[in-house]
């Protein structure tokens, strides 16, 4: 069975944002996404609920059969002299209820539902101190309605951005290292007693590049492969997707060459072929500016985002 998992930084999506709801829904529906991890979601996710409500009467882009959850990394702290984020930024998930539902499990004879949660000291999902994260990741577990006894574990990531000083880039890299070296291996191997096969993907806006001659921030690059070992097993944790995904600011929108409108490949997926044994994996960047907005970069930045969506297709 094939599933398509998307990740999309929505650029300050608040309740009052003037987003083009139909266009966002069109991207989700036309690309046949099953789950979407969203970053930069403000106002307690009320903008997403507003979009779902307004599109219920829209036949073509109806998101009535989709569910969503939002949360913010309340426990996260930042080091002294790091600017605080006062926007109330959080994460969100959207998923197609015809394909997935929140994981259900039996506890003391009652059916419980695994609520998505921020990974922190209260979640008991990892043995990792996450207090230094600017935004600790958001964790969801989904089970399919059809197609097998497994669960899909997703970790929604938005690594700190800040400026391009050495100290800030080191902070980004420290967050990334903790995700790939500790959080991802622990989440992917954790067992909750149901004996479901678990498949785990981390994704989001890493604010770090996979090295490419095209990227702008030459010193903000991540390590694409981490070799995990616990003394008994060895596994590779891969971070993939090297196509440019962030749009330059409006002062460069007069460039005649579309390729010069992009800056960095900050949006990635992380997975392990050994710890999550998918039958097959592929990934891509959706050229949403040209495909859905007729090449109008200015409209896309104003009404959609300053990032392109990325998609991972997995066969389970």
Chart the SSEs and their pairings:
Blueprint lengths: L1 E12 L7 H10 L4 E7 L4 H9 L11 E6 L18 E7 L3 E3 L1 E4 L2 E4 L3 E2 L19 E7 L5 E9 L7 H24 L7 E9 L19 E5 L4 E7 L26 E5 L8 E6 L2 H6 L3 H7 L6 E6 L1
Give your account of this protein's structure.
It is a single chain. The chain has 316 residues and is α+β, with helices and mostly antiparallel strands. The protein has a single domain (2-315), classed as Deoxyribonuclease I, Chain A (4-Layer Sandwich), CATH 3.60.10. The chain has 5 helices and 16 strands. It has helices at residues 21-30, 46-54, 166-189, 288-293, 297-303, and strands at residues 2-13, 35-41, 66-71, 90-96, 100-102, 104-107, 110-113, 117-118, 138-144, 150-158, 197-205, 225-229, 234-240, 267-271, 280-285, 310-315. The strands form 3 sheets. Strands 5, 8, 9, 10, 11, 12, 13 and 14 form an 8-stranded mixed sheet that branches. Strands 3-4-2-1-16-15 form a 6-stranded mixed sheet, covered by helices on one side. The termini are close together. Mean pLDDT is 90; it is low at 79-83.
Keywords:
316 residues, alpha+beta, Deoxyribonuclease I, Chain A, eight-stranded mixed β-sheet, six-stranded mixed β-sheet, 16 strands
Task: Sum this structure up briefly.
By secondary structure, this protein is α+β, with helices and mostly antiparallel strands. It has helices at 21-30, 46-54, 166-189, 288-293, 297-303; strands spanning 2-13, 35-41, 66-71, 90-96, 100-102, 104-107, 110-113, 117-118, 138-144, 150-158, 197-205, 225-229, 234-240, 267-271, 280-285, 310-315. Helix content is 18%, strand content 31%.
């Amino acid at each position: 069975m094939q599933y398509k998992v998307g990740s999309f930084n929505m650029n300050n999506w608040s309740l009052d944002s003037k987003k083009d709801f139909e266009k966002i829904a069109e991207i989700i529906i036309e690309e046949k996404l099953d789950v979407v991890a969203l970053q930069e979601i403000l106002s307690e996710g009320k903008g997403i609920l507003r979009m779902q409500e307004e599109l219920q009467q829209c036949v073509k882009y109806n998101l009535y059969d989709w569910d969503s959850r939002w949360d913010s990394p309340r426990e996260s702290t930042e080091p002294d002299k790091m600017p605080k984020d006062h926007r109330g930024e959080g994460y969100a998930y959207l998923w197609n209820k015809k394909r997935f539902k929140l994981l259900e499990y039996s506890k003391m004879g009652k059916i419980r539902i695994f609520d998505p949660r921020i990974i922190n000291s209260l979640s008991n999902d990892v043995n990792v101190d996450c207090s230094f994260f600017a935004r600790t990741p958001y964790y969801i577990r989904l089970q399919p309605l059809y197609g097998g006894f497994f669960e899909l574990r997703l970790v929604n990531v938005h690594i700190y951005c800040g400026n391009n000083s050495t100290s800030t880039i080191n902070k980004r890299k420290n967050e990334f290292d903790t995700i790939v070296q500790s959080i991802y291996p622990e989440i992917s191997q954790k067992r909750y007693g149901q004996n479901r096969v678990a498949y785990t993907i981390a994704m989001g806006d890493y604010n770090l590049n996979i090295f490419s001659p095209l990227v702008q921030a030459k010193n903000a690059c991540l390590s694409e492969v981490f070799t995990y070992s616990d003394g008994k097993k060895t596994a590779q944790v891969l971070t993939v997707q090297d196509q440019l995904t962030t749009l330059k600011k409006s002062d460069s929108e007069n460039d005649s060459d579309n390729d010069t409108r992009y800056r960095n490949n900050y949006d990635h997926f992380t997975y392990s072929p050994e710890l999550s044994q998918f039958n097959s994996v592929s990934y891509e960047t959706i050229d949403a500016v040209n495909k859905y907005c007729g090449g109008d970069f200015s409209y896309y930045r104003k009404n959609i985002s300053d990032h392109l969506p990325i998609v991972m297709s997995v066969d389970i």
